[in-house]
Amino acid sequence: MPPRQRPAGPTDALREAGIKTFTLADLAPDLNGIDTYHLAENYGLFIGETATPEGQPMPMLTLYSETEGAGIQDLERRTDWEHWDLHGMPGMDPHWRLRANIADRSLKGLVHVGPDGEDDIELWRAAEMVSLPAEWWSLLDQVQHVLVVGPVKEADPRAVEAAGDAGELLAVVARVTFV
C-alpha cells in the first residue's frame, strides 16, 4: 500500500480545482508599508500591580481578548511566554518591550523586537492616549520592567486568578522603553 498522505488543506484543494486563491503570505510583498496590525487577533489591557518573590512591587499588565480568535492558543502561537500559575515570576525576555510615552504618561504598545532590531510582533497598540495614574507610572519608571500576563476573557482583575487556577495564563517580564 502507498504511504498515507496528509490530506490537502482547503486552499490546496481549491488550487487543484483550478480556482485562484490568495493568502496573506502570497500578498506579503505587496503589503510593504501597509499596517497589518488589525489582521491579527487583538487584545486590550488593564494595569495592575504585583510583588516579586522578594516582596518588591512590580507593575503588571493583563491582556484580555478583544477579538474572537484572541486567547491562549493565539498567544501560544505568537509568543514564547511561559505558562504561569500566579506563583513565582516568569522569565524576563528583553525582546518584549512595553513602549511608554514620557510626555503624556501613557502606554503606546507592546511589541517583540526581532534580531534585526525591528518590531516583528505587535501584540497590543493603544487606540487612544490615556494618561496613567501617577503612582503606577512612578512604579513603572522605577522598575523599568513589567509583568505581562494573559489572556483573560474580560477586563476584570478577578479574571486573572480564575485563568491562573485553570492553567490558562501565559506570562513574561518585558522591558519598558520610554519614548
Describe, in plain words, how this protein is organized in 3D:
- This protein has 5 helices and 8 strands.
- The radius of gyration is 19 Å and the shape is globular.
- The chain is about 20% helix and about 35% strand.
- The N and C termini lie far apart (about 65 Å).
- The chain has helices at about 10-15, 25, 70-80, 135-145, 155-165, and strands spanning about 45-50, 55-65, 80-85, 90-100, 105-115, 120-125, 145-150, 170-179.
- The chain has about 180 residues and is an alpha+beta fold.
- Strands 1, 2, 3, 4, 5, 6, 7 and 8 form an 8-stranded mixed beta sheet that branches.
Question: How many strands, what sense, and barrel or not for the largest sheet?
Answer: 8 strands, mixed
Provide the succession of SSEs. Answer: HHEEHEEEEHEHE
| Alpha plus pi helix count | 5
Helix content: 10-25%
Task: Kindly provide the radius of gyration, computed on alpha-carbon positions and rounded to a whole number of angstroms.
Answer: 19 Å
Mean pLDDT score, rounded? 87
Shape assignment: globular
Secondary structure category: alpha+beta
Q: Which regions have little confidence, pLDDT < 50, spanning 5+ residues?
A: 1-7
Distance N terminus to C terminus?
Answer: 63 Å
**Number of strand elements:** 8
Strand content: 25-35%
